[in-house]
From TrEMBL:
SUPFAM superfamilies: S-adenosyl-L-methionine-dependent methyltransferases. GO terms for biological process: methylation. Keywords: Methyltransferase, S-adenosyl-L-methionine, Transferase. Signal peptide: none annotated. GO terms for molecular function: O-methyltransferase activity. It comes from Antrihabitans stalactiti. This is O-methyltransferase. CDD domains: AdoMet_MTases. It comes from the Bacteria.
């Protein structure tokens, strides 16, 4: 293909996408992924996975929107406002409402007392977890981005649940610093951890789970839920679960959709730990 023809094809494709986005905007954004905010996020997905924010200020805008448009102390209304922002304002990489119900059900079944979340983002999945976990449970949420931690704390306080969750800035794979904090400051001892939610760097799912196993924090019956196993995907993690089915893990694969839409399919895994490695 000649350069002029290639350029013409690119321009035509770009024009078609722009026209579709405009039409979607005029129709009230019925297709969440067909929006400028979603396209920007998808284009920069590798960078987003590393820094934890889109880079256009939508995370800070979310916090302001939630405080303005939801009732303080009402966790249900705060969750509603976040979903509303993601559908009508700027697309967010939250677990979302559809997959959030899978997370809710898993937490209720596990009845955990000590919970760990890898990937705080703006605190949405933590809100859903807190709502479903027992009243005397405690959640620790880890994110490498300090701005995310600040936004999440602000939203949690507004929802009236700031005393039930701790935001920890760091990462499990930081040469032991964060693991040491969890162990020494927050009571992560042998067989103490009941529930883990993975929703951070997809390439780190398996290595971070193995680090948690090496620490001995899980016990038979501990539950690990992982989001985005199909999209963007964590193939090595899924292969590991399948290879160790009925020996180390008992896994349910929940077929679902990526956040806030019904076109792109996704997979959420819910895995019960069966015993020591």
């Amino acid at each position: 293909m000649t350069a002029p023809r290639l350029l013409r094809g690119v321009l035509l494709a770009g024009g078609a996408v722009a026209a579709a986005v405009v039409a979607n905007e005029l129709a009230g954004k019925p297709i969440p992924f067909l929006r400028w905010s979603a396209l920007r996020m998808l284009v920069d997905l590798p960078g987003l996975d590393k820094r934890g924010q889109v880079g256009d200020g939508r995370e800070r805008a979310l916090a302001l929107y939630v405080i303005k448009n939801s009732r303080g102390g009402d966790i249900d209304d705060v969750i509603r406002a976040i979903d509303e922002f993601a559908r009508k304002k700027s697309f967010l990489m939250n677990v979302g409402d559809e997959k959030g119900e899978i997370l809710d059900a898993a937490v209720r079944r596990a009845k955990p007392k000590l919970l760990l979340e890898l990937g705080t983002y703006c605190g949405y999945s933590a809100l859903r977890t807190i709502r479903a976990m027992p009243a005397d449970a405690r959640l620790y949420s880890i994110d490498i981005n300090s701005a995310n931690a600040r936004i999440a704390r602000q939203i949690w306080e507004h929802a009236g649940v700031g005393d039930r969750v701790t935001a920890v800035v760091g990462m499990i794979g930081d040469s032991g610093t964060t693991i040491a904090r969890l162990r020494n400051d927050y009571g992560f001892t042998e067989a103490a951890l009941d529930f883990v939610f993975l929703d951070h760097h997809k390439s780190a799912y398996l290595t971070d789970l193995r680090r948690i196993l090496e620490e001995g924090w899980l016990h038979p019956g501990s539950v690990v839920v992982a989001d985005n196993v199909k999209f963007p995907g964590a193939p090595d993690y899924l292969a590991y679960l399948r290879a160790n089915e009925a020996t180390l893990w008992r896994t349910v694969e929940h077929e679902t959709h990526a956040e806030y839409q019904k076109v792109i399919k996704d997979l959420v895994t819910e895995s019960e730990f069966l015993g020591k490695v």
